[in-house]
Every structure is written in C-alpha cells, then in structure tokens.
Amino acid sequence: MNTRLRYGVLMSVAVVAMALAPTAWAERGKTPQTIAGLGTVTFPTSAKSDAAQTAFARGLLLLHLFEYPDAAAAFQQAEQLDPGFAMAYWGEAMTYNHPVWNELDLAAGRAALRKLGATDAAREARAPSAREKTYLATVNILYFGKGTKRQRDASYCDAMQRLATAYPHDNNAQLFYALALLGRNEGVRNIPDYLHAAAIARHIFKLNPQNPGAAHYWIHGMDDPQHAAGALVAARALSQIAPDAGHAQHMTSHIFMALGMWDDVVTANENATRVVYAHAKAAGKPQVHCFHYNEWLEYAYFQQGRQRDAENLLQACRRTGTEALRGMDKKQAALFRDQFQWSLMQMRATAVVESHDWDGAAAQMRIDTSTLGGEAGWNDFAIGYAAAERGDAALAKTSLAALDKLAATTQPPNPDDPQQSDYLRILRDDLDGLIASKRGAMQQALASVRRAAQHYDGMAFDFGPPAPVKPPHELLGELLFATGKPAAACTEFEAALKKAPNRTQSLLGLARAQAASHDTAAAIAAYQRLVKIWHAADAGLPGLDEARRYLGTQSHD
Q1: pLDDT at residue 27 in the model
Q2: CA gap 97, 291 in Å, rounded
Q3: How many CB atoms lie within 10 A of CB 178?
Q4: Mean pLDDT across the chain
Q5: Mean pLDDT lowest for which of 6-15, 90-99, 176-185?
Q6: Does a structural domain hold residue 273?
Q7: Which of 167, 188, 209 is the last residue of a domain?
C-alpha cells in the first residue's frame, strides 16, 4: 500500500476508533505536565510508566525549543524506561529533522525508527492507538518516503495538515503542522506559509501560553521587518517560558533584530550564551565563544557602538575555539573544525565591515576555509573588502578572482543552502563595485553594486544580520554620496533600512545624505536616532561625535 493510501486508511481508523471504541490502555499525559525551566505541555501517550511519560514530555518541550541533542537524550531515556513506548521513538526521530535550518539527518532518523520496527507496518503495529499510529505514519514520510528531501518535506507537511485536522484538540499536532509549513520550502522564507504558521502558533499560544512551541513558531513565522511587530508578545514571553533553554533566550532576538531593537538583541543573546556556557560547564565541555548566538551578539554590539566588546568577542571566539580543538580526538575535531572555522569567518567578516579598521586584527586574521566550499566566499569578501579600503589593490583583485571562481562553480540549487549561489554573486558584485570605485571607475562601480542590490531585492528575506555582510543598498548609497548625489543616496539608504531597521551604518549614511540635501529636519531626526542607539557606545566613536556636533550646530541656529 502506498504512503498516501495507507495514511488515508489510518485517518479513517482514527476517526472510527475515537467515535466507537473505548481506550484499551492506560493513557498518560492527559493533564498538563510542567518541566521546570522548559515550559508546560499536554500530550497523552501510551507510556507504561509515569517516569517514561515525564521523560517524553521533557523531550517534547526540548524538541519545540530546537534543543535537539538534549531532546534526543530525553526521548532515549523514555525508550530505556519503556522499550515498547512507540512515541518515544517517534520523538527521537523528530530530533534529527531541523526544518527551519533545512537539515535532515536521514541515517540517524531511520536508525531511531528501526529500533521500534524494521518496516512502516511493524512500527505502526507497536502503537496501541490510532492517533499514535498516525503520528508514526507521518514521520515515516520524512525518513522512508519516496522522492527528494524537498518532495518528502512537502508530503510530510500535507500529512501533518491532515493529522492536525483529524485531531483539532491536539495542540502539539497543530504546532508540528505550523513547523512543517516553516520547513517545506527548504529553509527559504515563503511569506504566506510563514504567516499561516504564525497564525496557528498564535492561536495555540492563547490556549496554552506556557507551551514554548507556540511562542517559538509564532516568532519564526514573523521574524522579518515587515511583520515582526506582530510577534512582540511572543518575543517577550518565550524567554520567561523556558529560562533554562539557550535557544529560547536567543529566539526572542529574531523579533528584536528585525525591528532594530539593539539593547534587546544584546540582552537576549547574552542570556543565551550564559545558559549555554552553564550547560557546557555542567557537562564538562569547553565553553566556546563562537557560533550562532555569539555571531548575533557581536553584530548587535557593533550596532550599539560597543566596538571593543565586539572585537573582544571575536578574539574570544578564536581563542576558545582553538583551545577546544586541541583537547579533542581526531573524530571530534573533524566534526567541530568546520563549524568553528565557519563561525569565526562570519564573525571576522562582520568585524571588518562594521569596525572600519581596514588594517586591524580582524582584517589581518587568517582562517583556513579550505574545506568550506562555497561558504569560503565570505572569507574572500572580507579579505578583499579590507584590502580595497586600505589601498591594497593587488590583494583585493586576488580576492575578487577567488569570489568569481566560487560564484561560477557553486551552481544552484545547493540542497543545503538554496540561496548560497545568489549570495556569492552579491558578494562578488559588491566587492567588484568597491574595487572599481577605488580606481575612479565610478560608472562601473555603481553598475556592479546596483546589480547586487537588485539581486538582493529579488531574494527571500533571511532572518538575522544581513547575509551579504555589507548590504548592497548601503554600499550603493555610500558610492552615490561620494559622487555628489545625496538625494539618490538617501533613496538607497532608506531601502537598506527597510531590510535592516536601525542598522547604524545605513542610518549614519542617511543622516549625512539628508544633511547634504539640506533636509535639516530629517537629518536631525536621523542623528537623534543614532545618539539614542549609541547611548552605551565607546567613547570617541566617530559617528557619535559627528551626530552630536551636527545636533549641537542645529540647536544654535
């Protein structure tokens, strides 16, 4: 029987069973279960013991929080406590699918499910209720269904919709359907799907505001500048729902980042790293000051004008990551090295662009990106950008040639990162435009960066700091301003700020262009915004001094 037909039969069985048959097994988890530091969830199962049900509930909450390794460990504990507990194996398999990140560990997911049974039918036979059989049939699509990952993700999403429809009072079924909507486009934002997911999650949040999945998926569905204000309630709630989950602390900053609320971005990611470091210490693992939360923290420090803190964090990443590598065996090091080098590369690129220190420690840092494939383009861009700005034309051209090669050889679609080839072209055109401007070829420079900006506008929005590192509209505004076209520059800076609200380099460029255009009221407003954002900035921050001078001059006029 094919998957679609078998699923339809199971759904019919589920409805009949609910209507006609009494429950033949002791159902646990019918009342809300609270796990300290992680939230509250209601998910009835056929667990044979309260201990197994509690381990399952812990795993489920961690799964909703994207704390995947800890979630897998909790589900495995449930399996050990109750080897016949079908939903524990479902849960473990779910931890190997990371829809928003477009990651699926096919081998690990299959291995988890095969512990329950060798075939789809054997696994479903181990589940005593129609509802549990349906959950198993649905997850089987991800790991044993036909077609490519994209096709399986689409089929899985359709199946989750049917499951959610069949069990309208199963809040977690609704949430997993919302998550499937977020993931069915391979990690690339599809606005209708994202808003649909947010609406589902928002509804469940009203029913159970302590289920972290509700706030979490609501945030993910609206974490772009156009919609983020609609999820501020979720952003304010999630860190309180799950104070012991680093991802819950960080996730709030998706909304704050999209709105340019830099103090909140910093607080969220400082809290996230504090939780992560505490967990690492408790587990006897090294505390590495790199990776996602620190990447966002460094970027937000720069927006606050706290350049020393940002640069110290970059150096801490390099130091702690290198020390961690030395303490690992070869197998561990092989798994860790690429992640570390990628994160260090991203943080260094941010530091180069944001600090304007073209010959400083970040610009001179050397990173081995030989195993990173197309991702190495961000390293080439950072090297070339700093070289062009400090007048090293030879090195800038070498970096551009390396980017040209990567852009030519990294062809779409990359199944792991569908937009990677697009970003490489944008990086290439940004760098080409900057190099051309330094030799006075302004028409070529403007054409290259304008092409990058148009390309960027045609892409799906990616949450977080600007993926091209130097937003092309911002660079185009700077080039236009330098050629004596402040009005045109204003248009580009405003376009940049729509994609990255309150980004300080775009806002500073806008203020300068407005002042040069004799739009004094607008320039005052922009400079005042900068002064407010930079309330905790390093002493002597150049843009801050400029803003204060301008505002002081205008106050005397």
Answers
A1: 76
A2: 20
A3: 30
A4: 93
A5: 6-15
A6: no
A7: 188
Number of domains within the chain: 2
Q: How far, CA to CA in Å, does 37 sit from each of 34, 61, 129?
A: 9, 10, 31
What does the block give as tokens for 133?
């059989």
Residue 269 in any domain: the answer is: no
In a domain, 298, yes or no: no
* Mean local confidence (pLDDT), 412-435: 88
Q: Look at residues 479, 380, 471, 394 and name the one whose alpha carbon lies nearest to residue 434.
A: 479
Domain limit, last residue, from 160, 188, 216? 188
What CATH number is attached to the domain comprising 65? 1.25.40
Amino acid at 290: C
Average pLDDT of span 386-408? 96
Per-residue tokens: 212: 């972290």
Q: What is the pLDDT of residues 189-224, one digit of tens each?
A: 999 999 999 999 999 999 999 999 999 999 999 999
pLDDT-derived band at 407 (thresholds 50, 70, 90) equals confident
DSSP count for the chain of H helices, then E strands = 27, 4
Q: Which domain holds residue 508?
A: 357-555
Among 73-77, 308-312, 459-463, 507-511, the minimum mean pLDDT is found in 459-463
Domain contains 109: yes
A 10 A CB-CB count for 484 gives 9
Which helix (H) or strand (E) segment is 37 a member of?
Answer: none
- H/E run at residue 199: helix 191-207
3-state secondary structure of 28: strand
Mention every residue, 6+ apart, whose C-beta is less than 8 A from residue 186: 102, 149, 150, 153, 415, 418
